[in-house]
């Protein structure tokens, strides 16, 4: 029986998605998320780290399930089972080309679903085990961390040798990662176009970040731009150098963040107003952002490098927006305002997101998002509601006191009337009136105590 394996469902028909979710839970699986578009599937795969993905082939949006599955496998190496009602040859050939773990035709039985899931999980575990046995260096914790980064990454030792490299980076140059481990850095990086490096007359050669190229296995050179970081080790070991590789073309395109005149003006205005803001295009890439947003992204753990990539490949970007919601805004063209609640180090913040579609000839081409901290306003609303509630309860208590006062008056007036007329008070009647008055007085005292408590609360605040 399943032991709580985590599964992500990617299905654009929500009724079908909910039905699959119920079946999976009944079988003992944990459903960690649901997505209806390919871009959202990639984002949620990075966020939730499922053990397996059930992927419908026909999805809403630009990206279908096959394209999404291919990218997820490249980024996260997860087993994927395709679900589809279409068994035509072309679809089947495209699906087979990405090597899925399984393929289920709708409608399918629960037993078929469970069997496919368990077989896929088992095959994936065996595949990982074989990979570790063939390449034992991948067993190191550092190697696993480097390999898990969904970006081209090289780790250099202080002496300039390649200590670790992930397969994403090795593939850029046409290598397998084990072919590059332990080799000197100049076996992988070189001077762009064989041009002149910067020399200072002392025999020292410097290659600037925009002059670097990758040396491919076939002898060709690929221009790239590098970004550096550090990996610190325990003890007194010197740090290693973490190098992120970006194609020169994408770096040149994404680094300017200038965009149309309107985007530049919007960023300038929002910066002056101290409001974080960013603009995305239809391919879900950032077309512009201001320094306040860049600072927030850094605090959320999103590097500058990741901001230059498709946002659905940046799991932590969900802090600023869900891919499905953004895609829906491109379709609807409506302005949206939404307040989200966040907790930072036990401090609660309320952030209002205003999303404005920017249109050309009536068709949305970009979405501008402006963020505002509305915590003070929300607290003011909560405080007003609290005060309203307290005064309402105070009024209700006073009303109850008035009603009890009227009730007490009736038996007392009745007894006084009998006494004024010289009528004898029978023992049973007197006892009944006494009990009634005693009960009313007790309720009257309780109401007064509650009134005093409420009054004190309001006075103190």
UniProtKB/TrEMBL annotation:
<feature type="modified residue" description="4-aspartylphosphate">
    <location>
        <position position="56"/>
    </location>
</feature>
<dbReference type="InterPro" id="IPR000014">
    <property type="entry name" value="PAS"/>
</dbReference>
<dbReference type="InterPro" id="IPR001789">
    <property type="entry name" value="Sig_transdc_resp-reg_receiver"/>
</dbReference>
<feature type="domain" description="Response regulatory">
    <location>
        <begin position="6"/>
        <end position="121"/>
    </location>
</feature>
<keyword id="KW-0597">Phosphoprotein</keyword>
<feature type="domain" description="PAS">
    <location>
        <begin position="138"/>
        <end position="183"/>
    </location>
</feature>
<dbReference type="InterPro" id="IPR035965">
    <property type="entry name" value="PAS-like_dom_sf"/>
</dbReference>
<dbReference type="InterPro" id="IPR011006">
    <property type="entry name" value="CheY-like_superfamily"/>
</dbReference>
<dbReference type="Pfam" id="PF00072">
    <property type="entry name" value="Response_reg"/>
</dbReference>
<protein>
    <submittedName>
        <fullName>PAS/PAC sensor protein</fullName>
    </submittedName>
</protein>
<dbReference type="Pfam" id="PF13426">
    <property type="entry name" value="PAS_9"/>
</dbReference>
<dbReference type="InterPro" id="IPR052048">
    <property type="entry name" value="ST_Response_Regulator"/>
</dbReference>
<dbReference type="GO" id="GO:0000160">
    <property type="term" value="P:phosphorelay signal transduction system"/>
</dbReference>
């Amino acid at each position: 029986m399943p032991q709580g394996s985590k599964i992500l469902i990617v299905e654009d028909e929500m009724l079908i998605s909910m039905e699959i979710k119920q079946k999976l839970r009944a079988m003992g699986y944990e459903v960690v998320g649901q997505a209806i578009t390919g871009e959202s599937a990639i984002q949620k795969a990075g966020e939730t780290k499922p053990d397996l993905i059930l992927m419908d082939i026909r999805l809403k949006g630009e990206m279908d399930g096959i394209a999404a599955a291919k990218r997820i496998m490249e980024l996260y190496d997860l087993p994927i089972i395709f679900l589809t009602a279409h068994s035509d040859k072309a679809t089947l050939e495209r699906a087979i080309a990405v090597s899925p773990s399984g393929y289920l035709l709708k409608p399918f039985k629960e037993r078929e679903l469970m069997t496919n899931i368990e077989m896929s999980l088992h095959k994936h575990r065996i595949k990982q085990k074989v990979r570790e046995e063939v390449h034992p260096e991948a067993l190191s914790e550092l190697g696993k961390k480097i390999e898990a980064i969904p970006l081209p990454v090289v780790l250099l030792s202080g002496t300039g040798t390649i200590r670790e490299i992930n397969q994403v980076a090795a593939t850029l140059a046409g290598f397998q990662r084990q072919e590059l481990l332990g080799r000197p850095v100049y076996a992988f990086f070189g001077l762009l176009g064989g041009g002149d490096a910067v020399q200072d007359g002392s025999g020292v050669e410097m290659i600037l970040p925009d002059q670097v190229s990758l040396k491919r296995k076939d002898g060709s050179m690929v221009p790239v731009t590098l970004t550096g970081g550090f990996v610190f080790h325990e003890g007194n070991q010197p740090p290693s150098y973490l190098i992120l590789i970006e194609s020169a073309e994408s770096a040149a395109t994404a680094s300017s963040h200038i965009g149309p005149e309107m985007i530049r003006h919007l960023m300038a205005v929002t910066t002056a107003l101290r409001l974080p803001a960013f603009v995305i295009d239809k391919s879900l890439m950032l077309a512009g952002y201001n320094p306040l947003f860049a600072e927030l992204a850094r605090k959320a753990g999103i590097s500058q490098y990741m901001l230059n990539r498709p946002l659905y490949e940046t799991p932590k970007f969900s802090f600023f927006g869900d891919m499905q919601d953004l895609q829906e805004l491109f379709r609807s063209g409506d302005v949206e305002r939404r307040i989200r609640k966040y907790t930072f180090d036990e401090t609660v913040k309320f952030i209002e997101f205003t999303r404005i579609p920017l249109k050309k000839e009536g068709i949305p081409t970009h979405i501008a998002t402006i963020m505002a901290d509305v915590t003070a306003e929300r607290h003011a609303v909560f405080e007003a509601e609290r005060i309203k509630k307290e005064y309402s309860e105070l009024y209700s208590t006073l009303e109850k006191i008035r009603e009890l006062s009227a009730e007490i008056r009736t038996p007392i007036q009745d007894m006084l009337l009998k006494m004024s007329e010289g009528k004898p008070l029978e023992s049973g009647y007197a006892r009944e009136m006494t009990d009634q008055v005693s009960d009313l007085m007790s309720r009257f005292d309780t109401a007064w105590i509650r009134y005093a408590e409420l009054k004190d609360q309001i006075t103190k605040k």
